[in-house]
């Protein structure tokens, strides 16, 4: 499922908002989530999961083209921990024999 | 403070003028539809944010850390999140402003 498919599904499942409004709302939600992580805060959605930042210490890396050593600064990377309901439902999908499918785009 | 569904809905109300009930329902549906796709084995790709991928894990040997007893970890399907390039870059930039 892609973002545009998600928007279509949400638009079709409710009657109050036009597709354009749903599209704007979805983009606003994702932007709010990205902005939260970018400012170092967590996201906690019960039954879905939580997003947090994990610290990566500085390390020596290598330029893959030249083989030259480069010092890489410490950084933070986004991390997602699925919540119990999501974990259970995904696992039930496997038990029901549903194959993993990649989305269209 | 962590971002919650209530805060996301509040922002849809304030910024987009959705009424409070619409905003709350939309946020609820947003996460529910992602869960539903994943439950059905469908991976989810949200460009600019990241991908929710699925992986099947085989059964493997495990141990109860308290008792030391051996118990197999059953085969399972797990969700992994792969942040998109744009999100990774935005989050990385945070390290620079961090007091450590």
TrEMBL record, chain B:
<dbReference type="GO" id="GO:0030527">
    <property type="term" value="F:structural constituent of chromatin"/>
</dbReference>
<dbReference type="GO" id="GO:0006310">
    <property type="term" value="P:DNA recombination"/>
</dbReference>
<comment type="function">
    <text>This protein is one of the two subunits of integration host factor, a specific DNA-binding protein that functions in genetic recombination as well as in transcriptional and translational control.</text>
</comment>
<comment type="similarity">
    <text>Belongs to the bacterial histone-like protein family.</text>
</comment>
<dbReference type="InterPro" id="IPR005684">
    <property type="entry name" value="IHF_alpha"/>
</dbReference>
<keyword id="KW-0804">Transcription</keyword>
<keyword id="KW-0810">Translation regulation</keyword>
<comment type="subunit">
    <text>Heterodimer of an alpha and a beta chain.</text>
</comment>
<dbReference type="InterPro" id="IPR010992">
    <property type="entry name" value="IHF-like_DNA-bd_dom_sf"/>
</dbReference>
<dbReference type="GO" id="GO:0003677">
    <property type="term" value="F:DNA binding"/>
</dbReference>
<dbReference type="GO" id="GO:0009893">
    <property type="term" value="P:positive regulation of metabolic process"/>
</dbReference>
<keyword id="KW-0805">Transcription regulation</keyword>
<dbReference type="GO" id="GO:0006355">
    <property type="term" value="P:regulation of DNA-templated transcription"/>
</dbReference>
<keyword id="KW-0238">DNA-binding</keyword>
<protein>
    <recommendedName>
        <fullName>Integration host factor subunit alpha</fullName>
    </recommendedName>
</protein>
<dbReference type="InterPro" id="IPR000119">
    <property type="entry name" value="Hist_DNA-bd"/>
</dbReference>
<keyword id="KW-0233">DNA recombination</keyword>
<feature type="region of interest" description="Disordered">
    <location>
        <begin position="50"/>
        <end position="73"/>
    </location>
</feature>
<dbReference type="GO" id="GO:0006417">
    <property type="term" value="P:regulation of translation"/>
</dbReference>
<dbReference type="InterPro" id="IPR020816">
    <property type="entry name" value="Histone-like_DNA-bd_CS"/>
</dbReference>
<dbReference type="Pfam" id="PF00216">
    <property type="entry name" value="Bac_DNA_binding"/>
</dbReference>
<dbReference type="GO" id="GO:0005829">
    <property type="term" value="C:cytosol"/>
</dbReference>
């Amino acid at each position: 499922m892609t973002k545009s498919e998600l928007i279509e599904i949400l638009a079709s499942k409710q009657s109050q908002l036009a597709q354009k409004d749903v599209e704007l709302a979805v983009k606003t939600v994702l932007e709010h989530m990205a902005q939260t992580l970018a400012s170092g805060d967590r996201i906690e959605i019960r039954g879905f999961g939580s997003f947090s930042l994990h610290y990566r210490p500085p390390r020596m890396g290598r330029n893959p083209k030249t083989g030259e050593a480069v010092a890489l600064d410490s950084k933070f990377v986004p991390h997602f921990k699925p919540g119990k309901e999501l974990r259970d439902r995904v696992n039930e999908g496997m038990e029901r024999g549903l194959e993993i499918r990649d989305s269209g785009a | 403070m962590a971002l919650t569904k209530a805060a996301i809905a509040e922002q849809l109300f304030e910024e987009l003028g959705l009424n409070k009930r619409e905003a709350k329902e939309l946020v609820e549906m947003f996460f529910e539809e992602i869960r539903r796709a994943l439950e059905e084995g469908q991976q989810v790709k949200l460009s600019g944010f990241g991908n929710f991928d699925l992986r099947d894990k085989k059964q493997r040997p495990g141990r109860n850390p308290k008792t030391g007893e051996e118990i197999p970890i059953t085969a399972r399907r797990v969700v992994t999140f792969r942040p998109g390039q744009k999100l990774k870059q935005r989050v990385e930039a945070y390290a620079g402003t961090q007091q450590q």
